[in-house]
Amino acid sequence: MNFSARILDWFANHGRHDLPWQTNPTPYRVWVSEIMLQQTQVATVIPYYARFMERFPEVATLARAELDALLHSWSGLGYYARARHLHAAASIIMEQHAGKFPGDFAAVLALPGIGRSTAGAILSLAAGQRYPVLDGNVKRVLTRFHALAGWPGQTAVQTQLWMLAEQATPQTRVADYTQAIMDLGATVCTRARPSCAQCPLRCDCAAHATGRQAEFPTARPRKRLPERQTRMLILQNVDGEVLLEQRPPAGIWGGLWSFPECDTEVCVEDWCRQDLGLTIEVTEEWPVVRHTFSHYHLDISPLLGSATELDKSVMEAGNRLWYNHKTLQAKGVAAPVRKLLERVQSHHTGAGE
To answer: Which candidate in 34, 269, 281, 309 is catalytic?
Structure first.
């Protein structure tokens, strides 16, 4: 029995067959799931996916939606560029493909946020087209089976992996195989403590034969993440509302709502007067909160203040609003901002409001 046949045989009895996107696997439903699953575990994605599909059941609904509503649905899932790409791609599908998700590989690959592996996964899972996939789970299975050394992010290693993925993909039952090999990596050939005794490939797995499973895939060369600092200003008006401003559409937390930020070295009162048109009184400073991105650590110094005098110009830019933190309005906010808003709410609740 060859490589793919063994995986398919295993999948029939041990694979996952009840994931929400496996029910009525239209290209749209599979596309959304594949984008959500980029760098995110299945268990985390499932509740987000259910809420997302209820809110945006088809591509036309997604294209018509305000980006802010989409980002709110995405809040807490992280990697927000994925949501922005979904929104942009939905508009392209409506404008260039008559509202129908394209069935051509090149057209799918041209959509924002979709790379070679994601395009192949969508077309194989939703349309049965034969394209290899190479997500993190598949890379782990292939590097262990072939004892392929080298960090998969290196071009030469990546090229070898695509060749192996292509060779392993069968001519038939492509959708089942695609799900099967991803499932095998996610549930058996796991990063830590793989369940080799349950693996259908164990007899021919080069890493298993030599007891070197932990060596594959080769880890990315480690480097010390740089550290950055910012001060987030949690400013409240007389009604207890908190000032938020919308971040630029590109970059970290693009399009999300956040607290005004200033350098940790500036005089906060002067900065607020000059940049926000607010006269404030600093009331409290909270301990530093660290948020880690893939390429740096961000140390956030939260500072609470009350706005004693309001200049209407603070709202003229159109990207600021007074946010009622007691009701957690439907605004897309990043995880650390949401946690701070919840802390503000509990802070006032504890104070007897």
So the answer is: 34
